[in-house]
Design a protein that fits this description.
Elements lengths: L5 H9 L5 E3 L2 E7 L3 H18 L4 E5 L2 E6 L9 H11 L3
Antiparallel strand pairs: 1-2, 2-4, 3-4
Helix pairs in contact: 2-3
Amino acid sequence: MEAIEPSVVDKALSEGLGWQREGNELVKVWKGKDFSAALAYVNAVGALAEQAGHHPDIDIRWSTVTLRLSTHSIGALTRADIDLAVQIDALR
């Protein structure tokens, strides 16, 4: 797996990818109505991550979930990060 150019990330972000870039990570903050909703969201994200074999870092704070995607093995963003971000964005 190889790093993608910042311009590829910028293009995805400009086309409506619901994430922000922070250094070598894509970050998404999701807010639900309560802790139960946050857990359900995390479980849905987890199912996608398992299917993709690519896993975000996840932080749950009551009704707020913060996801961070990066390809840790190379310390950069890859196509796998963009692809999983798109799938996570499709969750409603």
